[in-house]
Amino acid sequence: MAASCVRTVGSFLGKCTKCSSSINTVATQVLLSRQVCVSSALCRKNLAAAGPEKFTLEYIQKQVEEYEIGKRHLANMMGEDSENFTQEDIDKSIAYLFPSSLFEKRARPLMKHPDEIFPKQRAVQWGADGRPFHFLFYTGKQSYYSLMHDLYGKILKIEKHQDRLRAKGLFSQDAQLISLGPSRWLTKEELELLLVETISTHDYDRFIKLMERMLAMPYSSTEEEFVQRYRRQLEAQSMKQMMPPLEKDENGVAFSTAEGRRKTSDSSVILRDCGSGHITINGQDYLQYFPVLQDREQLMFPLQFMGVLGRFNLECTVSGGGRSSQAGALRLAISRALLSFLSEGDGEAMRQAGLLTPDPRVRERKKPGQEGARRKFTWKKR
Amino acid sequence: SQNRVKLFPLAHVDTTHFYVQVMLHKCNLMILTCISFQACHSEKHLGQYYTLPSAHIRTLFPSGLPWRYQQQVKTFNEACIMVRQPSLEVISYLKKTDYSKPALRYLFYGQKGTGKTISLCHTVHFCYTQGWLVLHIPDAHQWVKNCKELLPSSYNASRFDQPLQATTWLRNFRLTNERFLSKIKTKHRYMWTKREFTEEGSLLGELVDQGISRVKSSSDVVGAVMKELRLQSGQPGSDFRLAVAVDGVNGLWGRSTIKKEDKSVDPEELTLIYNLRKLMRNDWTGGAIIATLSQTGSLYTPKSAYLPQELLGERGFDSMDPFIPVSVPNYSEKEFESCYLYYMDRHWLQHPQSRTEEGKKELVFLSNRNPSMLDRICGFL
Fold it and tell me: Any idea what DSSP says for residue A260?
C-alpha cells in the first residue's frame, strides 16, 4: 500500500452493483463524488499522540471479576482453601505452574489484582451536561490546586486557633509542634501517583515549601493526620549492628559464631576467648592454607585493629571463590564475630574502618558483542 | 601409627678422646652465649644462638646450607645457629651411642620451613668438631632432576652416570675431609678402564683425585668411596667415625624427571642413587646416618605431605625402617623471642613498628612462628 491510492467514489459505487440497498443509502448520503487522495502515512494511527491506553471503568471492573474467579480456580487447582488464598500464595502457585528462568523478574508471568496492574486513571470529570464536577477543573491541574487550596485553608485555621489562644492568653511559642518521626516527604513521582496527574518540579517545590511553613507554625499538631498522609516512614535505620550472641561452651569458654561473604566465597568463623591465638582453616593450619602474606594480613586486620591479637582462637571454614575472596570473606566474618566481645565504641570504630561492610563488588557479566565485560573486540579500521 | 620404629638400647659410650677445637663464641646480650663448644650442646642453652666459625663454614658447607641462610651469613658476616630441641636430641643420642652396633638412622621431619636443614647442619657441625668423617649430600633431589649430562655407566650397562654431579660432590668431599684423605687406604682394587686402575692400599685422596680428573668415571669413584668408607668404618683398625648426612632423603625413593630418549629414568638406574641407597642401609657400624625429609625439592609429591610415610613412600619407608624420627616444629615462644632479639641485635628490623610489642604480636601472627616465614617477613622490615 505504498503508492497512493486514488479512490473514486463513483468507481466504488460502480463495483458494488449487487448490494443495491446499501448503494442507495450511500448514494443519498454522498451528494458529491470527489477524488479523495489518501496517503498511507495518514492511514497509520499516530500512536504517540493517543497517550497511555485508556481503560473504561466497566473494563476494569470486568478485569477485577475475572481476577477473583481466577483466584478461586487457582486455589482449587492447588488444592488450597479458596477463601483464604492470599496474594503470596498466588505468587507461589504461579511460580510453580509457570516456571521461568528469565533474569528480569518483571518479565516473568504474574497474576495480581487489576488495581496494581492498570495505572490509575481519572474518571470522567464532567457530567452529562458537559459541566465539570470540580470547581478548579479549568486550572488544568485540579487535584494539585485543590490540594494547595486545602493546605492554605489549614494554615488559616491554625492561625485562627493561635489568635483565639492569644486572646485567651494561653499562647506559648514552642508548644505542640508536629513530631514526625523518621519519615520523609513524598517524592514528586509518588505525589503524581497520588494526585493522578502530572505536576512540574516548580509546583512540587511550592507544595513542599508550604508544608514546611505549616509545620514551622506552633499548634500545627492539630493537622498531624493531614500531614502524615503526605509523608513516608523511613525504614528504621538501626544504628546498632547486628552482633552475634555470645555463647559459652562446656569448658566455660566464651565463643561467638559469625558468617561472611565476598564475591562467591562463604565463610563461617567461631571465635573462642582462649588466649592462645591458634588459627585453623578447614582443619588446616592457616600458614599452609594461605601461603601468601597478603591473605594472612587480611585475616590479621580486624584483630590487630582492636589490639586483641593473641587473645582469640579461630576455627574457620571457608568454601568457594578464590584465594583473595576467601580471605575477604573470612575477614568480614572475624569482624562480625568480634563485635560481641567488644564495646559499642569499638564496634563503631570497626564500622568506620570499613571492616563490617560487605564488599558489594561482584564479577560483571560478559556482554555479547564484546570480548569481556568492558573489553571490546579489536577495532579494525577496514 | 605413622612411625614403625624399633628403638635400639642406647648404651653409654666410653669416653674416647677426639681432639676438640675449643671455639670462642661471641658474647652478645643475654641471649647469645659465650661458652666453650662442648657445653654449648646442652639443654641449658636451648633457644640461644651459637656462632659457627667461618673457616668451618668454608670447609664443611661449600653448598650444604640453605640459600637464604647463606645470604644471611653474608649480610651479617657471621653464621649463627639457634640451639633447638631436635638437633640437641640427636646430638645427645650421638654422644651416647655404642658404635660397635649397626649405624642408627635419624630422620628430621616437619612442615615446610621449620628448620630441618639447619638442624641437620648443626648436627653435622657437631660431628665435624668431634672429628668424624662427614659424608654430606646437600640435596639428594639435585641428583634426580635437571641432569644435563647422562652417560651410560661403564660399570653396569643398565645404569646411568651423572658425571657433573659426581665431580662436584667429590670436590666438596675433598674439601671437607682433607685430613682423612691421606690416612685412609683402600682395601680393594678398582679398575676404571683397560689401562687405569687403582691399586689396593692406595690412599683415599688418590681415589678422589682420580674421580675429579677423570670425569667419565666419577660416578663410579663416588660409589667406590662410599663402599670403602662403609666397609672400613667400625673396623678395629680404623680411627674415624662416619657420619652420613643426606638432605632430602625422600628423593632417593621417589621419581625422577630425568629423561633418556623420551623414557623417564627410574632413580634406581642412576649410579649415584644406587650407591647412596646401599650406604643408607644399616649394615655397617661405627657411625650414624642423619637425614632430612624435604617436600620442597621433591618430585610428584603433594604440597601438604610432610610425614615420613607420605614422603618416603612404601619402598623408602621399608628401606629406612627402623629409624628414629625427630620432629622439627615451629619456634616455641622462647625460641621466637630469641630469634626476634637476634634480629634486633643485628639491626635487621628497621621498621619502627617492629620494635614495639604490637609489632611483635603481628610478626607472631603473620609467620605463625615458622622460622622461614619469619625470616622472609623480617627481610623487608
Answer: E
The Cα–Cα gap between B320 and B308 comes to 10
Shortest CA gap A241–chain B (Å): 27
- Residues B232-269, buried b or exposed e (16+ Cβ, 10 A)? bbbeeebebbbbbbbbbbbbbbbbbebeeeeeebebeb
Task: With cut-offs at 50, 70 and 90, classify the pLDDT of residue A382.
Answer: confident
Burial state string for B48-81 with b = 16 or more CB within 10 A and e = fewer than 16: bbbbbbeebbebbbbebbbeebeebbeeeebbbb
Residues of A in CB contact (< 8 Å) with B are: 277, 279, 284-288, 293, 296-297, 299-300, 303-304, 307, 309-310
> Is residue A370 classed exposed, middle or buried when 0-12, 13-18 and 19+ CB atoms within 10 A define those classes?
exposed
Q: What's the Rg (C-alpha) of chain B?
A: 21
Residue corresponding to grid cell 585493629? A305
Interface test with A, best of B361, B367, B375, B376 (most A CBs within 10 A): B361
Q: CA B362 to CA A304: how far, in whole Å? A: 7
CB pairs under 8 A between A and B: 40
- Does residue B198 contact residue B192 with C-beta atoms inside 8 Å? yes
Pick the CATH number of A247-353 from 1.10.10.10, 3.30.1180.10, 3.40.1110.10, 3.30.230.10: 3.30.230.10
pTM for this one? 0.70
Best residue of B295, B368, B370, B376 to probe chain A, by most A CBs closer than 10 Å: B368
Instruction: Name the DSSP class of A120.
Output: P
> Is A357 strand, coil or helix?
coil
In this prediction, residues A342-354 reach a mean pLDDT of 87
The answer to whether residue B96 scores a pLDDT higher than 60 is yes
pLDDT at site A31: 62
Q: What pLDDT is recorded for position A239?
A: 62
Q: What is the pLDDT of residues B255-285, one digit of tens each?
A: 888 888 888 888 888 888 888 888 888 888 8
What does pLDDT average to over chain B?
Answer: 80
Summarize the confidence of residues A98-114 as an average pLDDT: 92
Measured between its terminal Cα atoms, the distance across chain A in Å is 40
Query: Which of B146, B140, B112 has the alpha carbon at shortest distance from B295?
Result: B112
The rounded distance, in Å, linking the Cα atoms of B332 and A187 is 65
Whether A296 and B365 lie within 8 Å, measured CB to CB: yes
Where are the extended beta strands (E) located within chain A? 5-7, 36-38, 183-185, 231-233, 247-248, 254-262, 265-272, 279-281, 284-285, 313-319
Counting Cα atoms < 13 Å in the Cβ hemisphere of B379 gives 14
Q: Where do the structural domains in chain A lie, given as residue ranges?
A: 66-117, 142-233, 247-353
